[in-house]
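Q: Mind making up any chain with structure tokens?
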Amino acid sequence: MKVLQLKDVSKVFYSKTQETRAIDRMTFDVDEGEFVSIIGPSGCGKTTVLSLISKLIAPTSGTVSLFGNNHVGYMLQRDQLFEWRTIEKNVYLGLEIQHKLTPENKIYAEGLLKKYGLWEFRKHYPSEISGGMRQRAALIRTLATNPDLLLLDEPFSALDFQTRLEVCDDVYAIIKSEKKTALLVTHDISEAISLSDRIVVLTARPATVLTIHTPALTAPTPLKRRESPDFSKQFELLHRYLHGDKT
């Protein structure tokens, strides 16, 4: 069952002196339970795609369709935890903003903290925990609102390489355990291959879909998938696509 569909979507930004076509007739969809990544050349409009899906901006033409109850969760490049709030209070933030901090939802959020190893740190402040734990807290904050679709905008880019590998495994396991659908924007080809069921490859601006790649790696975790004999071949293929070689 489809959770998201973009059909012939274009986006043009206008200024007083010019117009910039960021996206041109883009079409792809995401099925329930999938983990889909978007990669493309720098500046091609990957984050613009997420802004269109989350309805922060409207398409110039074409349609962006969300199915289900249309509830989208957005996880940004940095964890955006408030330093003056405890981890517990940070996790409650989305529910507070949506006026949904009911006893039932509070119990659900507390269950996520317990399930994913942050319960004993719930009274700590963000500065008192590791970068990986902060990202886990940010994801739990997003999950606490029970979204149908998670939008992940380069959520690991601020982490060092070793922490990034560990957090990728963490986030992937949590998303799969909670049976969520995810759409990740990343500039990291290896990250996309290791995490994704499918990869949407975009052209340079104005961005359109060049191809959709299916990694089909069977190892249970992103870290283990990086050890697959086929991993380097897929990396080379996607690297060629991003540099204009379609062969």
Observations:
- Residues 161-177 form the longest helix (17 residues).
- Residues 13 and 20 are 5 Å apart (CA to CA).
